[in-house]
Amino acid sequence: MESNTASLEAKKLELWYGHFQALRDISMVxxxxxxxxxxxxxGCGKSSLLRCFNRMNDLIPGSRVNGEVLFDGRNIxxxxxxxxxxxxxxxxxxxxxxxxPKSIFENVAFGxxxxxxxxxxxxxxxxxxxxxxxxxxxxDRLLKSAMELSGGQQQRLCIARTLALEPEVILMDxxxxxxxxxxxxxxEDLMSNLAEEYTIVIVTHNMQQAARVSGMxxxxxxxxxxxxxxxxxxxxxxxxxxxxxxxTEDYITGRFG
Length: 257
Known about the structure:
Distance between the termini: 38 Å
CATH topology of the domain at 6-99 and 172-252: Rossmann fold
Number of helices: 10
Shape: globular
Helix content: 25-40%
CATH class of the domain at 6-99 and 172-252: Alpha Beta
Largest sheet: 6 strands, mixed
Strand order of the largest sheet: 6-7-8-3-9-10
Structural class: alpha/beta
């Protein structure tokens, strides 16, 4: 498909945690092979929205979703869709690097083994580490503990672990918030390279980061009843230089949030 076609689409998406409505009436189209950033103040539902895109909220007791999330045109919340298959194709990288207390090799191979993929493990691990721009730094110590890596290396290892499963979409929940500026720059460069092959959706509090790496940006705000809602969504350059909504302008210029 062409890069301007949709990869993910939310249609009137709403999310509840028990009696609390976390998201209200979210509709947006996420283009393929682009980086889409989700920005907004703390508590506005950014991470909740991200987790809707691969059904991670299903793991939270009492959560429920109304509306649709279309992935390649199919609603991932349809009754006949396996959530595990969704997460296989839509991978996720979390805020804090979370390597397993295993070797570097076994961290990358973990998801493959869990899914019963044992053929050509060495090739798959090497390919994933290359894609995560980590191979040259770890190729001589693959059997060493992943816990010995720096924070930035651990985050790239977690990205490699996700890439090993050959997903089509990568969701990133503030992947640089625990990293120093040098490690952050490496992750941003990596994201830009990965967007040639993958669709990436990133939640970030760092507006400079959103402006640097994303092609599309969504601004969210908490409503009076604390439900998160989408205020504005469009090309990042437009959102940051000529926002259509006064609330977007106020947030970007630091007047609130």
